[in-house]
Design a protein that fits this description.
Length: about 210
């Protein structure tokens, strides 16, 4: 959300996109009419930018990777299972977790608007809300994934999940190879936001070059 700025910032209005300009004008009007407290807006944005974000979803994925019982509960009933980690809230009341396997890759989209599990994944990326992604993810998911740099075997089936106001999805990606013995924190660091949407994969574990003899 774009914030209203003091008068000395107005010279930079030309740097705003049309959408940002409309948001700023609406926000300024609401503040001027007394409908919105600027401090409350600042607190809300700060919460989503710092305290709520994809690092929370990454914790869920990492726990599922190390705890088979948690993983089973997550896939069976995601909302209360995610809440076990004190994660949840408005926009995440009805969560569904779908698991990637060598046979199936899951991709999440919202074809009608931009429904997104904010409490779990934070602010949605701009491309998630864009009409091209919302349309093409359904009719050409393999092509969309290729544009994100994800190349899957032809034998891997792609399942597209359409989020709604009632149900939000998150992808449980496959655990990267070479992570045996990793702590949950180390595993969570490998989980990207895009991997939990399905447009990306977890970060690969770097392969260290063998040391040369002295």
């Amino acid at each position: 959300m774009t914030h209203a700025h003091a008068d000395h910032d107005h010279d930079h209005g030309s740097d705003l996109s049309p959408v940002e300009a409309r948001v700023r004008a609406l926000e300024s009007l609401l503040v001027e009419k007394g409908y919105v407290d600027p401090a409350a807006l600042d607190a809300l944005v700060e919460m989503y930018e710092t305290r709520i974000g994809p690092h929370l979803g990454a914790r869920v994925v990492a726990r599922a990777w190390v705890d088979p019982a948690f993983r089973a509960r997550l896939l069976a009933d995601a909302t209360p299972t995610i809440a076990e980690l004190d994660i949840g809230g408005r926009g995440g009341e009805h969560m569904v977790a779908v698991e990637n396997t060598p046979e199936v890759h899951n991709l999440v989209v919202c074809t009608l608007c931009s429904c997104y599990p904010w409490p779990v994944l934070g602010l949605p990326p701009v491309w998630y809300k864009a009409p091209p992604y919302r349309a093409r993810a359904v009719i050409d998911p393999r092509g969309v994934l290729a544009e994100f740099g994800v190349s899957l075997p032809e034998t891997t089936r792609i399942t597209v999940w359409d989020s709604t106001a009632e149900t939000r999805f998150m992808v449980l990606p496959m655990r990267p190879a070479g992570t045996e013995g990793f702590s949950e924190a180390a595993l969570a660091a490998l989980v990207t936001r895009d991997a939990m949407i399905g447009t990306g994969l977890p970060r690969a574990v770097p392969v260290l070059a063998p040391e040369m003899p002295a």
